[in-house]
Amino acid sequence: MKIKSKTLCLAALLTISTQVTAAPVPENLYTQQPSITPELAHPGQYPVGVKTLQVVHEKQLNTQTFTSFEDRPLTLEVWYPAAANAATEELATYENVTRLHKPFSLIGTGHRNAQAQKTGQFPLIVLSHGYTGYRTIMYYLGEHLASHGYVVVGIDHTDSTTEDVDFVNSGFSGFPSTLVNRARDQQFVLDYFSQDDSAIANITDTDHAAVIGYSMGGFGAINTIGACYGFNQAGLQRLGFPEDAAKQLIPVFNSCHAGRDEVDSRWQAMIAYAPWGGESSVHDAKSMKTITVPSLYVSGDQDDVSGYENGVKKLFEQTDSKDKYLMVYENARHNIAPHPAPKIAYETDADLGHYIEPSWSNEQLNRINMHMSLAFLDCFVKKDDSKCAYLPKRDNATQVKDSEGKLTQAWPGFPDRWATGIRFYRGANAK
After folding, report:
1. Which domains occur in the chain, in start order?
2. What is the arithmetic mean of pLDDT over 90-96?
3. What SS3 class is residue 47?
4. How far apart are CA 226 and CA 257, in angstroms?
């Protein structure tokens, strides 16, 4: 009897151990019918390869002490046009954790470590997550753009990923690093691929690049393309810095052009999804008027993190680029860019609140983002005028009946009657 009891106990322990350590089953989050997908959200001509890189940005400011410099490790996820035989490689899975550090696995459409195209030059797109986030939180956009002939690089911004931050006990532990490094990480990726000699770098056109940022990634992207930060002592104190530290750190935080003397001319376009900073006026208004890079802002009009009227909309209005645009999701809050919530996120509101939009399907948001991002990038990075025509000229996507009882024309590329609840604004002289 004793031997049997010990055996049963051991079997139970092994079962529990297996349950704890077993890898999550990969989830496919995208099930939407093609008939309601905007035209430019369909896959492109290239099979997609996916590769993870470990790189180091040398001698960066230590944001724990602010008195020394150290090497800054970064993990990158790279999506790229792959060789024709890419389908023989395994499908990519993306392993991540929620804000409460619950692991999950998502399955994509790219192929892990597939051979890159041997020829061609494909513009570089830098993909920058929010605080907190991870390099694959917009993997749908990385895969999509790569299928249309771009090399897309998602960054794990060290110190501010969901894995780095204890969201419950010290939710803002990586915020100083975020303020200092977000734009600098973006610029580093462009510099890295312009100097690397790998098979992927050899087909990457770094002279024609764009940055896409979500939330704090958008905050950094605005700085990368030309704005200066303008933190004052009171602002830093509101962010939790003690009075003496706030006074001393103003010169550290206040910088322009990702810490460069001038904007890197290789940046051809910027897309900012729900960028943070407008409500706190952290981007210097005078420098915003020097921005010339074509810019697309995307926001929910109920954004309760970055703000809309005094947040994203204000940033759009302050930007002085001739080609500037603002797309607005009506009744959406802040979560307009992440992939849909994995199953495990539904266990707690703290995790689910990182993904879900109460009034929208996140998958539908993703499809629209894919369509509009591709139109904008093809227009201004690839200089394809035919794609500029997909940028709406009527500000309301919702079709209404005219005096003869006929529906007004749908936005370019949108199926008839499917686009609703979206607005689109253009700068006065936009293309």
Report:
1. 36-426 (3.40.50.1820)
2. 96
3. coil
4. 5
Q: Tell me if 428 sits within 8 A of 324, measured CB to CB.
A: no
Please say whether the dihedral angle defined by the alpha carbons of residues 78, 152, 147 and 131, taken in this order, is positive or negative. Answer: positive
DSSP-derived 3-state class of residue 421: coil
Beta strands in 150-265 (DSSP E): 151-156, 204-214
Q: How does pLDDT run across 228-256, given as a tens digit for each residue?
A: 999 888 888 887 788 888 888 888 888 99
User: For 110-145, how does the pLDDT look when each residue is reduced to its tens digit (9 = 90+)?
Assistant: 999 999 999 999 999 999 999 999 999 999 999 999
| N- to C-terminal Cα separation, the chain | 83
List beta partners, residue 103.
97
Question: Residues 143-176: pLDDT tens digits?
Answer: 999 999 999 999 999 999 999 999 777 767 888 8
Cis peptide before 132 (omega within 30 of 0): yes
Strands 267-273 and 295-300: parallel
Give me the residue label for tokens 């940046």: 267
Secondary structure (3-state) at 423: strand
Residue 424 pLDDT exceeds 90: yes
Q: At residue 194, does pLDDT exceed 80? A: yes
Question: What pLDDT does residue 253 have?
Answer: 85
Gap between the Cα atoms of 228 and 235, Å rounded: 15
Structure tokens at 347: 């266990």
Q: With residue 77 as reference, give the H or E element that holds it.
A: strand 69-81
pLDDT for the residue 390: 98
User: At 349, is the secondary structure helix, strand, or coil?
Assistant: helix
In degrees and rounded to multiples of 5, residue 132 shows phi and psi of: -90, 160
In sequence order, the 6+-apart residues with CB closer than 8 A to the CB of 159 are 63, 165, 173, 174, 177, 178, 181
Question: Nearest to residue 46, comparing CAs of 128, 99, 122?
Answer: 122
Structure tokens given for 192: 């890295």
Q: Give the 3-state secondary structure percentages of the chain, helix then strand then coil, rounded to 5.
A: 30, 25, 45
Residue pair 116/82 in contact (Cβ under 8 Å)? The answer is yes
CB 105 within 8 A of CB 93: yes
Note whether 80 and 86 are within 8 A (CB).
Answer: no
